[in-house]
Each structure stands twice: as structure tokens, then as C-alpha cells.
Amino acid sequence: MVRPPQPRGLQKDVCLSTADCNAFHINKFVTKLQVKEYTTLPNLVAAFYEANNMVHNPAKARQIILSTFNILATKSSNESYALYCNRVADFIRKNEVKLTFFDTYKNHVDLAIVQNKCAAVQCLNEATACLISNRIVSESLNSQLAIMEQGKGRDEGGDDGDDENDDSDDQQMHQPLYVAVARRGKCYQRQCLVFGEVNHSEMGLRRRKSIVLICTLVGGSSRWCALLSSGLPLISRSLALPSINKKIGYLTVVVVCFIVGISITISSSAFSTFVCLAEDSQALHRTQPELFEKIRQTWPRVVQGI
Own/partner pairs for 196-200, CB < 8 Å, 24+ apart? Predict the structure, then answer.
């Protein structure tokens, strides 16, 4: 099957079929029209046929538009092309379009599915905009770690050396995952579904090495600099000039310990600072009182004592 030209702006893991690409372009075209220009299906077909040079006859234009309505009614944002579905949702939510759309095209789409999708999109937008609290952070982290454990269990059939590396990688990932959840105030899995539309456990297994590398680059570089800058002079002094300045060995140890300690302190303080700021409910009460009040009404136990 030949892959059709993909619309610009989609996620990298998205591959649309020919019908989906046509639906994407026709939806982009329809959203620019005025309501009076597509109150009937023939008017919309005629407008699309005149504006699109790639369509050679009105029958083809009608077929593309009807397939678009079918995709509009059946597809949802969990099918790996979030951008297309977001455009569809924006199109349907327009007050001046919604009733006209329902009345005009009721024979071509399942209105119940469209209405349910509109409600789901609205709930999703509300969910992604709310709630930074200790309880949310804790539950999100627990669910994330559980998913990681399941992915790790599926990999146990590999080599022993790989299992040991996976253990160390999982331990390294706990800190950045916790910071990501704490700073964003929402489930890391939900964030992947909203922006990437990818299976979370597969994403964690696929990107584990790169995440660990990025998060430990500064600390690892500091430790290696300490070992090289202090270890090489110590070795050269011991081999070449064993009788000169015997105290340099103690100085080397002090320098190594100091640089390694500084790198550990910087890493731990950065994580603890971000997490503490995200978990400070009083800070949220000062900066976003409306959000704090919504949290208090929804989960009163979260803000007890404030």
C-alpha cells in the first residue's frame, strides 16, 4: 500500500490513509467557509469542486465529502491523529455551525456519536487544565510506576545483562517521572495520550535510554571530569615522580570528593525544589485562587489544614 502525502503538523508516529488525508483537507476547507455557503450538500460539493484543483469531477468531490462526514462521526482522538480530531472538534463546537451541521447532514453522520465526541472533548479539555495537588501527584506517580513494572516484566525473557541495565534505568527514571508529574499536575500517561497519542508503556520502553541519558548528563559529566582531572595527575605522580610532593595524593582525593558531592547536591536540590514548589498548596492558593477553590470543593481532604 502506497503511503499518501501526509498533512503537515501531525505527530511523527501518525500515518493517515488516503481517505483520512482527504478528510483532513476537506475539513480544513470547510472550516473557512461561511454557514450560508454549505447549508446544503450540493452547495458544499460545488464550492469544494471549484476550490480544489485536484478533484476532476463533482462526483469525486461528493464522495470525498461523504467519506469525510463518515470519518468525522466515527473517528476519535485516540486513533493517533490528534491534530485532525482537534480541528474537527473546533469545527463542530462553533455555535453558528453546530445546528446547521446537524440539520443539513443528519442523513450522512451518526449525530449521537458526534455529540458524544463533543462532550468527551470538552471533558478532556477540563481535565487537562486542572488540579495540582499532593493527591494527584501521588496517584499519577503510582500509576506510572505500575505501568513501568508491567513493561519490565515483559522484557524479562531477554539476556541477564539487559535485565541488569533495565533495573538501573528504572531507578534512574523514578526521579524525572516524579518531577514531570509534580510540575504538570496531571498524570504523565494522560499527557502522552493528549499530545502523542501513543501507548504509554511502549513509549517508556522505547525512550528509556534517551530519557536516562538526558536526565543524568550533567551529573555524569561532572563525575567523569572529577575522575579524569584528579586521577590522571595522581597516576602520573605515582609512576613518574614518586618522591615529589607526597601530599598531592590527599589533595586529589579531596578534589574528587568535592566535585562529586557538588554534582549530587545540584541534582538532588533541583529535583526537590521543583517537587516542593509543585506540591505547595499554599502557593497555589496565592497564585490561582479559583483553581484552589475548585480543588477544595472536589477533594476537601487534599487541602485540610490550609
Answer: 196/11, 196/13, 197/11, 197/13, 197/14, 197/77, 197/78, 197/79, 197/80, 197/81, 197/82, 198/11, 198/13, 198/80, 200/147
Residue-wise pLDDT tens digits, 65-118: 666 665 555 544 333 334 444 444 444 444 444 444 555 555 555 555 555 555
Contact 91, 97 (CB under 8 A): yes
Alpha helix stretches (DSSP H) within 129-159: 134-154
Q: All 3 cell numbers of residue 255?
A: 578534589
Measured distance between the N- and C-terminal CA atoms of the chain, rounded to whole angstroms: 61
Q: Give the closest residue to 80 by CA, choosing from 14, 164, 127.
A: 14
Backbone φ, ψ for residue 110 (5° rounding): -90, 105
Only one residue has cell 575522575, namely: 227
Would you kindly state where each structural domain of the chain is located, as residue ranges? 18-128, 131-215, 216-306
Residue ranges of the chain whose pLDDT lies below 70:
1-41, 44, 52-54, 65-223, 225-227, 229-250, 252, 263-284, 286-288, 301-306
| Residue 175 in grid coordinates | 526521579
Q: At what angle do helices 41-51 and 58-74 cross, to 10 degrees?
A: 110
pLDDT tens-place string over residues 172-200: 445 555 555 555 544 444 444 433 333 44
Q: What is the pLDDT of residue 169?
A: 44
pLDDT of residue 128: 37
